[in-house]
Structures are given as structure tokens and as C-alpha cells.
């Protein structure tokens, strides 16, 4: 006998073509209808996921919520998936996905006493391979998804063993018939499925009206009940995803038949989503980075008694972040009102974090030595477990302006040991004519998990000695390690050499304009390669108008800052009605080139890419993924990566790395990396099957991302082994940048002790937080290079130290209880691993837990 499980669900997008209030209304209506049918039809089971929607019902219709709880206890309603919502599964970092699961699962455990072991993401547009380890260590055994379908992704079978970067494994199933059905069409849907799957011993068919709620209909349920007990040798039963996977594991013949493995990400589909609605992506990345940075600072401070841990405030910020990772928000496939709402929520989270972070900084700095007369104390607070070294900027406010036209007040900086530190004064953000506000740039150093103090004083210097504007301006820059040649006729980089190795071809960093459509998903394409134009250097008249200066002429490429820390070259470009400024920031020490790109974009149905033609024409590329790194074919197809990408030659001796502050999409072909900056499709522009225009042709329809956008990139070439080892920490410091603050401590508090320290920089501290239970501290550590590694983890303020061994890309979670002086290895739900032998770095003995012995 064969078995077909009918899994009834209703796909409800909290927002998409509608705002969240409508999503809330549809959730309540759908849940109410489903609950009534669960009581009315014997054997019927309704399935639904997303804890957010249950929270809405709990708040707005408590009686319905209690009815659902009763149906769950009776087995008539199944909690499916167990996540907070269905997020995008490519662009959030790995820790964001951990929290999607942690928040959702804890809610369902608390409210319903259930913990699903089958994760579901029906409508997400792709799935990173990094998910596998996260799923396995969150207690999942199975994964159910729909996209990409067979058109975009060839799988060995729709049932397969999915392998993660660390060789974690989970059983996955692609629901080829998709997740929803039309009202009154269930008989047709069942018959079609059976005809296509005659050879299978067991099957699962998703059904239920959805894409705006709905779920089961009375007619469909009556039609299901009209089937005979056995139909064409199939027993047709209502069920849940777990029923199917349990059946899958129980039948030996079934397992043998579906013995297939897959070792890649489940991509691509809708590749335009990696770039659409860039403002949301930028703010999401900012909130994501600031959340995990602030969480680390708070944990170090609160565990030493400086303040109470603000769990409720952090939870509020986290839910802002998780909501905006929804698969129609972060990918940019929603209407303008949803974009506005997402930006509002992201800003809300950022404001709360700003207040928490500032409060934390003032608490932990209170015990520092008070300022001396005329001293500006500058503090660099590094919560990361490895040393920090980076050019930083800070602005200071002198007591009063300097009205002496012959002198400038110039900062003199010394470190905590009294050693002079080179610094540079640059144009401040304000525009006051007096010598008043001061922006200082210097190379900061801070030990792991510690505070570095710098002392600044202002001294008068002859104004003429600081003037370089009248000097001949050369655009060839050499600091002994780095050599950069900027072409004065194009404004583009023609050479980038590190230790005499050239990494770039001429015309590097040229902004390319690509033919595109009004389709916000990019549903019918897998690449953006049709170049229809490029930005070119302005002439002097255009440059003057763009800069807004009084003169009629301004050179379109100029040195605007020069000093002992760095030189900044600015160049102006234009294309059609769009303009751009590129600032090249060239350091006096080191090999990292920074680009600051400010775009004023006024194009429609076009795409903007940044061309980075390397010397590695036959090379390949690699990019950061969630808790892993992916190697990509250099075939020109659109790819997705997170905070960095690297291009290698075939021999892998040297590498060019590019760290971004907010982009995801890119392609690579013949050694040329093209970073996707902007698209300008219509909002929710969905292509039709009959070639009907996406937008009406008799009126104006707004396009995404018109106007001003700001990007930063950090480019560094070097020996592959060392660059590959450091790139994750370099990216981390660019996103979770240690706060730099000028303040005047009272000197009355206690001093902060060092937090976590790692001896191996290839091991990252992905998360440092208080446990969800409110007791104990949770550390999440990750091997970032794909090589077996060892590290010593020490936490001085806890008198804690242990040795850890990591498999390639392994993620470890430690739970430390300072009160009971114990620790254990935990899963991602912060529960002890039942079998300690799963961790090859520990012995299975009773002394394992006592970190003081």
C-alpha cells in the first residue's frame, strides 16, 4: 500500500502587496476558519508555521488562540516549521538565522509545548548551504522547501541528503507542486500528483488557499472525504510534514531508492532580489551588525555588574531585525508602503541600540582616570576577542573657535603609555567658517576585549604649513607596500600593486550601466551582463555644478585630503541624468584601499555594477556565506555573498579581496568581478506569462532606489594563505566596528576587566549573550577558514580558560554558568548536547564541566 499525505497549510505573508495591518486581519480570519474546520471534519489536520502570526492572534483574539492551543493538544492542528517567520535564506548572516529559529522555537515550546523537527521555508527564493549546520544544531532532522524549482536547480531527486559546509547533514524535500492550491481544485491536484509519482511508495502534497491567507475550503475538504479508502493503490491521509519524513525513514526500500546527496546551496532563483530595494538592505546590514556588537558589549559589562542586562529592549530590537528579514522585505519584492515600514522598523531598532550602547559605554568608562586640563580623552572599546587595528575617525568640540587667521589648532595625540601617535585633521561634517570643530583620523590599536585610551590636546600651528592645495597633484601613490595609479583622464585606477604584485587591470572601479527590466525579482534571468553604458569623468564645468562651488570650473579629479595617515582623491562621474562621486582613500601604512562611492541615481529599469577587472583572467572567486564560505564558478551568472568576495588565480598564490558594507549580488567572469550596486525596477513588478508589460504604459510608475546612495568598499591584495585567514575578521571590524568615543570619565567607578580572548584569529566569536533562560552566558564560536583549527579560549573576568578543537567551518556553542562554576557544550537552542562524544575536543568525563579544575 502506498500513502499520500495531504498537508494543509495557508501561506500568509505578513506584508507584501499589502501592509502589516491587512496581514494581521488575514491571519486571524484564516486561523479562525481553519480552527472551525478542524473541529467539524474528522481526521482533518491544519498546519501552520511562523510564531509572529501566533503572537498576533494571541494579542488580538485571545479566545481563538486558546482554541488553537486545545487543537494542538488534540493533534488536529500542527505547529509547522517553528521559526519566527519565513525569512530570506541567503542574505541574513548565520547568527540572524540562528535567532529566527531560537525566538520561534522558544515561543512554541512556551505556548504550546511542542518543538517541530522539520523546518519549512516554502516561499524563500533560495537557501544557503550554511543553513544545514544551523538546522542540525537547532534540533531539526528535515527541511521542506519549494524554490528553486526544476527550471533553476537540478537536484539528484526531490528527496535528498543535504550536506553543510562542516559536513552536517539533513534530510531535505523539494515540494515540486508548490505550497498552495486553488479553491475547489484539490481533486485535480491529487490526481495530477498521483499520475506523476506512480513509482513512489509515499508522498506529500501541500495544499490550501494561500498567497493572502485562506487555507482549507469546505468544498475541498468535502471532495477529499469523497475519495474511497484506497484510490489507485494510494491511501490518502491528512497529515503533517513530520508524518512524511517519519515514513521516509521507516521504509528501507524507500531509503535505498532515495539515496542521494547534495553538497551545494539551493540556488539560484530571482537573482534580482540580491540588489532590489537597496536602502532596506543597507539598513538591515547596519542593524544586524549593531545588534550583535551591542549584545557583546552589554554581556561583558552586565556580567561584571556594571548594569542590568536589558533583555526586553534587546528582544524588541531583535524582532525588528527578524521581521525585516522576511522574504518579501529584505529581497525587495514588496510595495512602497512596505519599504517605508521596514525602514521605520529598522530605524526603531537602531535607535534603541544606540541608547543601550551609549549607556553601556558611559558605565564601563566611569572608572577610567579623569581628564587632565585641556585634555580630550578618546576611548576605543573593543569587545572582540582579537586585537583591533584600524584607521578610525572622531570629531571633537573645542571650548571656543580659533579666530587667529595665522594659525590652526592641530591635535596632538598620545596613547596610554605616553607615546606620540600620528594623526591627521580632515574636513569635519559641519560647515562653519571658523577653526572650530575638529575631525581627527588616526590608526587605532586596542587589545582583545579591552579599552584603549588616547589623550588629545590642541596646539597652534602655522596655517600656511598645512596648505597643500596649491601643490602639483600627482595621482600615483606609493607607501612602500602599496602602489596605486589613478588615471587623471578617466578617474579610474590603472594599477594596484602590493609588494610589487599587480592585482588590477586598467579602468578598475568603472561604474557600468546594465540593461534591466521592471521585474523586481528578476524572475526570468540568471545574470545581468548586458552593458549599455558607463559613467565617465565629468568635465570641469559639470564638476563645478555637481560640487556646488562658486567657481565656473573645478577639476573633476583632485586630492582633497593629505596627511600622515592617508591621502584622499576625489573624482566626479556622470551617466545620463545620474551622477557619482568616488573617493579613493589611500593609507600611509598597509595595503588596503578604501572606496567611498556616493551615487545620485535617476535611471529606470537599469542596473548599476562596479567593475573590478583583476589580473586573474582564468581564476575563480569565493564569497562569505552564513557560517561558511562558497566557491563560485566564474561564469558570469549572478551570485550572492555576504560581507566579502575574493578572486584567486588558478594557482591560488595571490588573492584580491573586496569587503563591502551593504551589497550582496555580484558576478565574475574572466577575472572581472562586477559588484551589483543598484537596480531600479518597479515595486512588486511581476512579469506575466503573456508578455504583457509589467507596468501600465499610460502613466507614471515609481521605480526603486531613485536618488542618493552611499557605499564603502575595502580592497586588499596579498598572499592567499594570510589574506584568507584574516578576511573574516577584517570584515567583522568593518561592520561591528569598536566604538570610538570622546568623553570625560568621573573616575569613580570600577574598571572593566578583559572579556573573551581567542588565541587563533581564524576562530570567530559569532555571538556573546546572556542565555535565554536569564542564567548563564552563551558564547558562539566559528571556524571561519574551512580548516581544522585549535584555540585557547580565556575569559579573564570569569577566571575561565579552555582548549578547543574545531572541524572545518564548525560552529560551537558554550554555556557558562559563573554562579555554579560550570560550563557545557550546547546546541543552538542553548540546551546541553545529550551525547558529549559528538564533540571530539572533549573527553566524556565528569571533570569536563568544571572549568576551575
How is the topology of this model organized?
Blueprint: E1 2-8, H1 20-40, E2 46-48, H2 51-60, H3 62-73, E3 77-79, H4 94-112, E4 118-121, H5 131-136, E5 142-145, E6 159-163, E7 169-174, H6 186-196, E8 202-207, H7 218-225, E9 234-238, H8 241-250, H9 252-257, E10 261-262, H10 278-302, H11 311-323, H12 336-365, E11 376-382, E12 388-396, E13 407-415, E14 420-421, E15 423-426, E16 438-446, E17 450-462, E18 476-478, E19 482-486, E20 493-498, E21 501-502, E22 510-515, E23 531-534, E24 536-537, H13 540-547, E25 557-562, E26 566-575, E27 578-587, E28 593-601, E29 606-613, E30 620-625, E31 628-632, E32 639-640, E33 644-648, E34 654-660, E35 665-669, E36 672-679, E37 707-719, H14 720-735, E38 740-742, E39 757-758, E40 763-770, E41 777-783, E42 789-795, E43 800-806, E44 811-817, E45 822-826
Helix pairs in contact: 1-2, 1-3, 2-3, 10-11, 10-12, 11-12
